[in-house]
Amino acid sequence: MSTILELSGVTKNFVKHLDAAAKLARRLGADVKEEVVHAVDGVSLKIAAGEVVGLVGESGCGKSTLGRMVAGIMEPTAGDIRYKDRVVSAMDKQAGRETALAIQMIFQDPFASLNPRMRVQDIIGEAPILHGVTSRADAGDYVAQVMERVGLDPEYRKRYPHQFSGGQRQRIGIARALAVKPEFLVCDEAIAALDVSIQAQVINLFMDLREDLDLTYLFISHDLSVVEHISDRVVIMYLGRIVEVASTEDIFDSANHPYTQALLNEVPRLDVRGFDYQPIAGEIPSPLDPPPGCHFHPRCPHATARCREERPQLREIAPGRVSACHLNDG
Amino acid sequence: MTDTAPTLQVENLETHFFTKDGVAKAVDGVSFTVGRGEIMGLVGESGSGKSVTGFSVLGLVDPPGKVVGGKVLFQGQDLLSIKEEELRHLRGNRIAMIFQDPMMTLNPVLRVDTQMIETVQAHDASVSDDEARARSRDALGQVGIPSPEERLKAYPHQFSGGMRQRVAIAIALLNKPDLIIADEPTTALDVTIQGQILYEAQKLCRDTGTALIWITHDLAVIAGLADKISVMYAGRIVEQGGLGDVLDHPAHPYTCGLLGSVPGHNTRGKRLYQIPGMTPSLLKLPKGCAFKERCPHADAACETAPEITHPVEGRALRCAHPQVDLAGVAS
Questions:
Q1: Which of B190, B218, B249 to mutate to test the interface with A (most CBs of A within 10 A)?
Q2: How far is B300 from A192, CA to CA, in rounded Å?
Q3: Same domain, A95 and A194
Q4: Which residue among A211, B31, B256, B286 is least crowded, i.e. fewest CB within 10 A of its CB?
Q5: By mean pLDDT, which of A51-55, A67-71, A281-285, B50-54 is the weakest?
Q6: What is the CATH number of domain B8-94+176-330?
Q7: Residue ranges of the domains in chain B?
Q8: Chain segment A82-98, per-residue pLDDT in tens
Q9: Chain A nearest-CA residue for B45
C-alpha cells in the first residue's frame, strides 16, 4: 500500500502572550515568561491509503490538535505534513484547495458543529456547489444521494439541525464531510457523544463507507474498545508525543510501552466481571510543565534514573512496530 | 430499621411529566431493591428514564414532573410520604447523589473547605469547625487527592475535571451515607481517572456497607463493578437480575441488542449488531410493548404490553418472547 499521509517532526506550540502589565513587570526585572504549551511535540507518522489508524490518548495529550493539523484547520509550528508525497504548506493554491477538500473532518459534538440556522440541504450542499463538485441545478439530487448514503431520509432535507436526534445529527456531519468526495477522514471522537445502540449504527456506517469509497481514516478516540474494533493500526500518544505504534492485535495482545499497558488495564470489558479496580499512580502532568526525560516516568512503575533524564526515542522493536521506552534497550 | 430490610426498596414507582403536548411517563412502574453493600447497575439509553428514577428516589423531580405513584422505602421508611424537611435531612446525610457534571454539586465561588464544612454541619450542627475540617480533609484523602490539607483551600476551578469529580464524590462520602446514587459520574472522564473513581466506589461499598446505584449506558463499566443489573427502556425495567445471569444469558431482545452492539475484543473487524431505529419519544410510545417496532421477534403477542414476570428467583423480565429458557439455564 502506498503512503497517503506522512507527518515528519510535526510540532504545535500554543503560546500565551504576555499582557501589557506583565511586559512592564518584565522590563522592571520581574521573572515573567511567556507560557508555552507543547501540545504536539515532534510527531512522525505514516498512514497508508485505505488504512484505519486509531489515535488514542487521555485528555490533553494533543490528539485533537494533531487531528486538526492533519485536516488543515491548524498550521503546525514546525515539521512537515505530506499528502501524497507533496508538502501541504508548500502547495500552490490549486493543489492546496484540492488537498483541503480531500481531507475532511468529523467532529465530536453534533450539536455544536452544525449551524443551527441552516437547513440540512444547505449544510450538506454548500461546499460541493462552491467547489464545483456539483452544479447548483443538480444540487438537490446530489444532496439526496449523499443523505441516502449515510442513512438519512432525503425527505428531511428542508429541516433544521434541532429537528434531529443526536445520532441523526452525527450522520448530517458525516454527509457534509462526504459531500466533497474526500479520500481521508479525520474523526475526532466522532461517536463519543452517542448512545450505545446509535454508536453501533455509526461505527457500522464508517466501516461501510470505508469499503464502498476506499476511504482512509484517522480515528481519534479515548475509547479503546471502539478503537480496537475499528482500527488496523493504533497510535498511542502521551503528553504531545507518540509513545507506541503497532497493529491493533499487537497493541491489545502484547502492549510494549508501560503507558499502553496501564491504559489497557483500565479498560472496562464486558467479559471481565467483579474487577478489582486499581488506580494508576499520579495525574497527567500539566503540558505547561512536562517532566524531563520520558514524560511518563513519574507514573511509570519501571522508571529508572535514565528515564528521568533522557528522552526515549521511538525505535522499531519489531517489524512495523515502534515504541519509545528505554526498557527496550535491555 | 431492621437488619433484614434492604437499604432501598422501590416499588412500582411512577413519575410523570405533564407537558403541554401530553403526559410523558418517564418512570412507569419501576421496582427494584438494593441491599447493604450491594451495587446495582441501572442501564439504559438517553430518555429511558434512568436518571429520573434516581431523581425520584431523592425527591428531586421538578415540575412539570411529579412522582404519581409507588413506594420508595429507604431502610423501611417511605420517602414519598415524609415531609420535605425530613427528606432534606436525609439527603446529603444518609443518601447522597453524584452527578455527571461535578459542577452541579460544587459552588464555583466558594472554596472547597467552606462547602465541605457546611455539608458536615448542615446535618450535625454540634460538630466543631475543626472537627468538620478534619473530616473534610480525610474525605479528600480517601478519594486520592494529593496533599488534601492544601487542596481544601482551593476553589473548584483550580481542579482538573477528574479531580473535581473526585471532590464531588468526597462530598457525597462526607457523612458516610447508607445509599449513594451515582448518575453517569465517569462518562466524561478518561479511562485512567474512571478506573480511580470505580476503585473508590468499590472500596466504599466493601468497607462501609454503602449501597450504590450506578446509573450508566456503559455496560462494560457495569460488568466490572456491579452485583446486579436493571435494564430500562422507555420508562420501564425490561430485564433485571444478577450481573452474570443477565450478561451471560440475556433474555430480553433489547438487552441482547445492547450487548451485541458493544464493540471490543471479540468484535474486531466484524460488523456490530445494530438495534434498528431509535428510542421512541415518551409522548408517542407504540401501543403494547414499547420495544416492538425495533424488535426482530415482535408479533401479535406484543400488541398487549407485557407484564413483568419472574421466570426464576431473582430475575425479572418484561417480554412475551424471552430469548433464553431461563428455567433451563438456572437448573
A1: B190
A2: 37
A3: yes
A4: A211
A5: A281-285
A6: 3.40.50.300
A7: 8-94+176-330, 108-174
A8: 999 999 999 999 999 99
A9: A195
